[in-house]
Amino acid sequence: DIVLTQTPLSSPVALGQPASISCRSSHSLVHSDGNTYLSWLQQRPGQPPRLLIYKISNRFSGVPDTFSGSGAGTDFTLKISRVEAEDVGVYYCMQATEFPWTFGQGTKVEIK
Amino acid sequence: QVRLVESGGGVVQPGRSLRLSCATSGFSLRNYGMHWVRQAPGKGLEWVAKISFGGAKKYYAESVKGRFTISRDITNNTLHLQMNSLRDEDMAVYYCARDFQGNWAIDYWGQGTLVIVSS
User: Fold this and answer.
1) Which of A52, A92, B24, B101, CA to CA, is 20 to 30 A from A58?
2) B40/A contact by beta carbon, under 8 A
């Protein structure tokens, strides 16, 4: 199985400051069709996950442009340009390049 | 709008069975693949199973293969997860989720249903 390792596991950030989360894969996530199926999800406290970013850098409908994704191959990053109170939660990367689909262990973003 | 509502969770003894359901609305199951993803208490997300939009292909996590079966009822727009031979480690919130067709991601999630495995 592909293992996704996120760092840091916890990220205290002051309001209005940027945050960055890394996701490193044990194998290249480039699919045979040339696409890279790495997405990012947000899970607010007590809520189900919500899709933020798909295929590395595409923002899902309704996601603010303060969220951005980047990376290639085995190394990926989610950035929040200015953290707001509603951004508190756990962020997961997920790969769908091969079955079984797998998630990173999650990064908790909290307000400092 | 897209809506996914899970049901069927509860307390079950180890070794017994449980069937989860997910009522969908706002789209047709005929046109979308669907997933089950679970989250043990206080833990991260674990993908469990997927059924393709055509219904012919089914994929499972190794941890549930041979014990769980994903299926769908197109007429009633309902997704199911039949869980047999339940183990302590199957205890989790089970989320029904829609495949982001063509983009190999998951775009919509239900609120989840809690399965407690306990004697």
Assistant:
1) B24
2) no
pLDDT per residue of chain A (112 residues) written in tens, 0 to 9: 999 999 999 999 999 999 999 999 999 999 999 999 999 999 999 999 999 999 999 999 999 999 999 999 999 999 999 999 999 999 999 999 999 999 999 999 999 9
CA B48 from centroid of its chain's CA atoms: 7
Going by C-alpha positions, the residue among B113, B106, B112, B100 that lies closest to residue A48 is: B112
A60: closest CA of chain B, how far (Å): 8
Query: Which two structure tokens, joined as six digits, stand for B18?
Result: 């449980």
Q: In 3D, which of A11, A40, A10 has the Cα closest to residue A23?
A: A40
Query: What would the DSSP string read from start to end of A62-73?
Result: T--TTEEEEEET
Looking at residue B34, its amino acid is M
